């Protein structure tokens, strides 16, 4: 578990799921992509794991990377950086039992990056919410309405 969200900052991850392929030399072989390793969420997303899993098999068995492996993920925006800092402060304050102060930072993080699942959805259980409840589905609908923005390799279509 990445309780301080360092990996989401290091790899500019804003939505889940995100998969980053790291090779045997600890180098990024394929940057963040919205991929699934199971079909757990296929009913909600319409996305099967099979295309991704075949890409993984081709990489492992044949050394073949997908065409999108050279995609350059842009840096986080200033607002996204600020949101992550507020999230980190909030998580720290929550661990210290300072719930009211933590809440203010969770709120500010969500204002700065309202469609960032690693912030907004991740804060749901920390604030007593259900990350698969009504609040999540409202967030997911806003995300879809905004064109499903993903900080990483863009998904070609939701039928993959």
Task: Note down, in words, how this protein is organized.
The protein is mainly α and 160 residues long. It has 2 domains: 13-69, no CATH class; 78-145. 46% of the residues lie in helices and 6% in strands. The protein has 7 helices and 2 strands. It has helices spanning 6-10, 42-45, 50-62, 78-95, 99-112, 120-126, 134-145; strands spanning 19-22, 28-33. It has a two-stranded antiparallel ribbon with strand order 1-2. Strand 1 (19-22) and strand 2 form a beta hairpin. Helix 4 (78-95) packs antiparallel against helix 5 (99-112). It is globular.
SSE inventory with pairings:
Layout: H1 6-10, E1 19-22, E2 28-33, H2 42-45, H3 50-62, H4 78-95, H5 99-112, H6 120-126, H7 134-145
Antiparallel strand pairs: 1-2
Q: What are the secondary-structure elements, in order, as H or E?
A: HEEHHHHHH
Which structural class fits the helix and strand makeup? mainly alpha
Number of strands: 2
Strand content: 5-15%
Relative helix content: 40-55%
What is the arithmetic mean of pLDDT? 89
Q: Biggest β-sheet: count, sense, barrel?
A: 2 strands, antiparallel
- Integer tally of domains: 2
Termini gap:
28 Å
Poorly predicted residue ranges: none
Count of alpha and pi helical runs: 7
Shape: globular
Question: Radius of gyration from the CA trace?
Answer: 17 Å
Main sheet: which strands, in order across? 1-2
